[in-house]
Write a structure and sequence with these properties.
By secondary structure, the chain is an alpha/beta fold. It has helices at 15-30, 45-56, 62-86, 118-125, 152-162, 196-204, 212-221, 274-284, 313-322, 354-364, 388-398; strands at residues 2-7, 34-39, 91-94, 101-103, 112-115, 129-133, 136-139, 144-146, 167-172, 193-195, 225-229, 237-240, 253-257, 261-269, 289-298, 301-308, 331-335, 338-344, 369-375, 378-384. Bound molecules: aspartic acid and magnesium ion. InterPro entries: AceGlu_kinase-like_sf (IPR036393), ACT-like_dom_sf (IPR045865), ACT_Aspartokinase (IPR054352), ACT_dom (IPR002912), AKii-LysC-BS (IPR041740), Asp/Glu/Uridylate_kinase (IPR001048), Asp_kin_monofn (IPR005260), Asp_kinase (IPR001341).
Length: 405
């Protein structure tokens, strides 16, 4: 079979870990498989490069930042290729552009528009292990781009789709996808399987194992994903189209996101176009708005609140202040120390009362629910942050997710 194996920054954090990865890849080849390996920059290299650049220029010109950041992955591919060759195997390293990754002409977070993997395929045919730099591409114009932070997952999945690999294995520092954060709930269980849709929700909810864009890509191209540890041989979690639902399981996972702030815009003139104006301006400023609630109208004035990422809150307030002349309102406020807790499960669709149970469990912890949003397979509640652990533990037990100990 043909495998794409992706190793993240912590898996290739130093030369010793690099050797461990090399051995792991060689073992895969010994099992009779063809291997393409996608790697991230070593350890915190990308962050370190950005920090150094900030000492020279606080504005970080986007084109030059891409030029700089892509060097991190280039170090990794060369080193890993050397480590693999040291084991007596043939290996070759390719940058993103050598591997054929074409992106839109945007710096910092470009989308892949095309992949021409001829070089990769040729080297595979020659029996080589192919090592490809994650997170990078080139525009039709020949400009170097990056795919957004954490983008190596996307490189791996997109390449797996392009070369019709049998699976894309994401090797990371955890064993797989868990029912919730094992640091909070000791009896969290590792999921054997999960559907793309469920994984997509979890990825968007801040469960850091997989980049959302990579999951989207996998869902679209139906590449089976396996999330597993690079430090042990435990079975990982398979992410695929239809995950087998365990008997009686309605909720597969519980996620939380501490990176939320609530913005409230009070006393807004209730006329057509208000929402479009406000949220259009936020979108234009590249501020992602998550939950939006209109919380009542009186005397022709409406109150709205929405959530944004914590680091975006000041900019969001600025944008809304800037709208005051066009869209009059009384005041804008924000609230921090909040957290969004979400339950996710494909089994929810056929089980009414899942949300009601969640509200009940949260209220029994004496915690106030500030905002709610739902989809077919997800319920999210924004709550105050100080009782997060208790809430997650209670939900984990209530939805029968605790492993038997
Ligand atoms: N090295 C890049 C980053 O740190 C890409 C990645 O790790 O996936 O964001
Ligand atoms: Mg990284």
């Amino acid at each position: 079979s043909l495998f794409v194996m992706k190793f993240g920054g912590s898996s290739v954090g130093d030369t010793e870990r690099m050797q461990r990865v090399a051995k792991r890849v060689a073992e895969k080849q010994d099992e009779g498989h063809k291997c393409v390996v996608v790697v991230s920059a070593m350890g915190d290299t990308t962050d370190d490069l950005i920090d150094q650049a900030k000492l020279l220029n606080n504005k970080l010109p986007a084109r030059e930042l891409d030029m700089l950041m892509t060097t991190g992955e280039q170090i990794s591919i060369a080193m890993l290729s050397m480590a693999i060759q040291q084991l007596g195997r043939e290996a070759v390293s390719y940058t993103g552009w050598q591997a054929g990754f074409v992106t839109e002409p945007v710096h910092g977070k470009a989308r892949i528009t095309d992949i021409n993997p001829e070089k990769v395929l040729r080297s595979l045919d020659e029996g080589k292990i192919v090592i490809v730099a994650g997170f990078q591409g080139i525009t039709a114009d020949g400009e170097i781009t990056t795919l957004g932070r954490g983008g190596s997952d996307t490189t791996a999945v997109a390449l797996a789709a392009a070369i019709k690999a049998d699976a894309c294995e994401i090797y990371t520092d955890v064993d797989g996808v868990y029912s919730t954060d094992p640091r909070i709930v000791k009896v969290a269980r590792k999921l054997k399987e999960i559907s793309y849709d469920e994984m997509l929700e979890l990825a968007h909810l801040g469960t850091a194992v997989l980049h959302p864009r990579a999951v989207e890509y996998a869902k679209h191209s139906k590449v089976p994903l396996v999330v597993r540890s690079s430090f042990n041989y435990n079975e990982g979690t398979v992410v695929k189209e239809e995950a087998a639902l365990e008997q009686g399981v309605v909720v597969s996972g519980i996620a939380y996101d501490k990176n939320v702030a609530r913005i409230s815009i009070l006393g807004v003139e209730d006329i057509p176009g208000v929402l479009a104006g406000m949220f259009g301006a936020l979108a234009q400023a590249q501020i992602d708005v998550d939950i939006i609630v209109q919380s009542g109208i009186s005397n022709g004035k409406a109150d709205f609140s929405c959530t944004v990422a914590l680091d975006d809150r000041e900019r969001a307030i600025e944008v809304i202040n800037g709208m005051k002349l066009v869209l009059p309102y009384r005041e804008v406020t924000f609230e921090e120390n909040l957290v969004k807790v979400s339950i996710v499960g494909a089994g929810m669709v056929s089980h009414p009362g899942v949300a009601a149970q969640m509200f009940d469990v949260i209220s029994k912890q004496g915690v106030n629910i500030k905002m709610v949003s739902t989809s077919e397979i997800k319920v999210s509640c924004v709550i105050e942050g100080n009782k997060l652990n208790e809430v997650i533990q209670a939900l984990h037990t209530a939805y029968n997710l605790d492993t038997d100990v």
